[in-house]
UniProtKB/TrEMBL annotation:
GO molecular function: galactosylceramidase activity
Residue ranges annotated for the Glycosyl hydrolase family 59 central domain, each copy included: 345-460
Keyword terms of this UniProt record: Disulfide bond, Glycoprotein, Glycosidase, Hydrolase, Lipid degradation, Lipid metabolism, Lysosome, Signal, Sphingolipid metabolism
Signal sequence segment: 1-23
Coiled-coil residue spans: none
Name of the gene: Galc
Substrates-to-products reaction catalysed: beta-D-galactosyl-(1<->1)-sphing-4-enine + H2O = sphing-4-enine + D-galactose; a D-galactosylceramide + H2O = an N-acyl-sphingoid base + D-galactose
Organism: Cephalopterus ornatus
Protein name per the record: Galactocerebrosidase
Organismal lineage: Eukaryota, Metazoa, Chordata, Craniata, Vertebrata
Compartment list: Lysosome
Enzyme class: hydrolase
Amino acid sequence: AALLWAAILLGCSYGPGPPRVGAAPLLTATYVLDDADGLGRQFDGIGAVSGGGATSRLLVNYQEPYRSQILDYLFKPNFGASLHILKVEIGGDGQSTDGTEPSHMHYENDENYFRGYEWWLMKEAKKRNPNIKLIGLPWTFPRWIGKGENWPYDYPDVTAYYIVSWILGAKQYHDLDIDYIGIWNERAFSSKYIKLLRYTLDKRGLEQVRIIASDRLWEPISFVLLIDSELHGVVDVIGAHYPGTKTVQNAILTEKKLWSSEDYSTFNDEVGAGCWARILNQNYVNGNMTSTIAWNLVASYYEELPFGRCGLMTAQEPWSGHYKVEAPIWITAHTTQFTQPGWSYLQVDGHLEGGGSFVALTDGLGNLTIIIETMTHNHSQCIRPPLPNFSVTPQRATFYLKGSFFMVETLQVWHSRLGFESGNSSLFQRLHPVKVWRGRFSLDLDVDEVYTLTTLKTGHKCIYPEPPPPHPFPSNYKDDFNIRNPPFSEAPNFADQTGVFEYFVNASDPGDHVFTLRQVVIQRPITWVSDADQTISIIGNFQWVNVTVTCDIYIEKQRDGGVFIAGRVDNGGIYVRRTKGVFFWVFADGTYRVTRDLAGEEILMKGLSGVRDNAWHTLTLNIQGSSASGLLNGYPLWENVTVSKPRNGWAALGTRSFEFAQFDNFHVE
C-alpha cells in the first residue's frame, strides 16, 4: 500500500484519480508484463469482411470526395480503423445475406475479372495500405461447378480450377496478391478438395497463398487435422465463426494459427462497439485467437435488408453523400493503430480482477502496446452467441514492466468511454502520457472503457468535415443505362437479391436499346441460402407507399420466359423467397399476371396481354393507396386491383426464372 501511494504521489497513477471521500475503495490488483521467458503467439491482424453478401453494394455509387473519405476511415494507416486485413467474397451469383455478388465465371467458357466491386475495393485498400492482407472466400458457386448438382465437391478439380482462376485473375488484371484463401463459408468442407486446392495452387506458382479452413466451427476441422497428417500439412489457419471468445482443445493441439475469421455482426451503436471492444481482446485472452475479422466492413446496403447497419461504419446513402463514422471504427483503432501483423502477444493471463481484460503486444524491438477493456455485460452483447453473465466494477490496475520493457519511461495514452448513461461517448481521445516509475504505473479503470497505452507516438484521430445530411432516396429516379464504358458492371443503386443484373451492350439493336440492363444468370447457383426461383433486383426507399414504376422490358426466353416490375417489395437477402409486394408480370406466351408475391402464387389478376419474346414492350405499374393498375405500351391493361399488404416497400424488376432478359429506361416516381 505504501508503495502504491508513493507511486500516486509521484504522478505515476493515470485515470480518474483516487476515489472521493465516502466512496467504496477501489478493487486493486497488480499485473506483470515480461518478455524474459519468451513471447506468446504471433499477432495476425484485425480485419473486416466485404461480402457475404453485397454489403458494400452502395459504397461504389458515392461521389467524390465522400467515397474516398469513407475508404480512408477504413483503410488508411494511423487515420481511422486502419485495418490490417480485408476479406472479400468470391462472388458466385447466389444470395449470400444481403444480395448476390457476380461470379468471374458465370458459365464454364466465360471469364471476366471486372465484374462486381470487390476488385476495386481491394485495390483501394492496397492503395492506402500496401501491407494490408487480402483474403478470398466463396459463399456460393455457379451451377456449372457442380455439373448441375447443388454441391461444389463432386468435381473438386473443377472447383479448385475455378478458385485458383480468381486468384490468378486478381494478379493478372489488378496486380493484387491474395494472401489467404478459404474453402466454403459456413458449410461443409472436403478434405479431398482442400488437398487438391493446395496442389493446384502450388502447380500454378501460388505457394505463398495460405489456406484457411473451415470458416464454420472449431469442429470437425480440428479433429480431422489431428488424424489426417496430409491435411494438417496443407491447412495453415483454423478459422472459426462467432466463437464467443472460446476455442476447443483439439484446435490448440493442432498447433495451427487460430482465427475468429468472422465475428461481430452486430448493430453498430454503442452496444455494438462494446461487443467489438470485448471480443478484440478476449478472443485472444480466452481463445488464443490471433486475428479477429468483423462482418461487415461497412454497412453499404439498404438498411431494411437483413442485419442492417451491422458494419464498422455506415454508408448507405450514395444519393445524398451522407455517411456516419460509427463507434466501432474508433474501437478498432485502439488496436490497429498501435500494432501490426507480425507483432507478438506477451504471455499474460489477460483477465482483470475487477472484470474486463487486457492484452499486451510487442514488435520485439522494444515497442510495447497494452489494450485494456472493461465492457459490462449488457453493454457488450454481440448478436451471437449468447453471452453468459459476468460483472465488471471500477478498479485500480498496477502494471509492472519487466524484461526489455523495464526501461520504458513514458507511455502514450488513448481512451474511449462508451456513454450509455449520459448518451455521450468519448471515443479514441489522446490523453496525457503516463509516466512509468521504476517499471511501474497504475491506472484507475471505470466500466465500459477502452485504454491503449503504447510506446508508439504515431496514432491519430483524423476527422473529415461533416458529410452532407441524410436524405431519402430520390422520389423521382430514372436510369436509361446509356453508358458505354461503365466503371462497374452493375447499375447504381440496384441491389440484386437473386440473379445478377449487368450493363449490356445490345449490338443487334437498331438504336433505341443498345445499352440495357440484363439478367445474366441462367442456372440456379450452388446456393448458400434459399435463393428465390425468380430473379429480382430491388431499388429505392423501403418507406414508399404510392409509387409508379415504368420500364421497357425484353423477354429473351421463348415460350415460358417472363419478366416483372414491382412496387411495395417488402423483403430481400436471406429472406428473399418470402418476398411480398405488388408484382406485374408479362410472359412470352402472351399472358400477364398481377401477384402479391415474388413466387407468383397469390394471384390478384390475370389475362391476355399480347406480349411476345424478343420484342420490346413498356410496362407501367401504378400503386395508389389500396388500388393498383397496369399499363402496357402506354395503354391500360388492368386496373382497380385491390392491394392491402404490404403497405410499403422498394421498387423492383426481375424475371420468372433464371433466364436472360433485358430492361431499359427504368423510371420510378
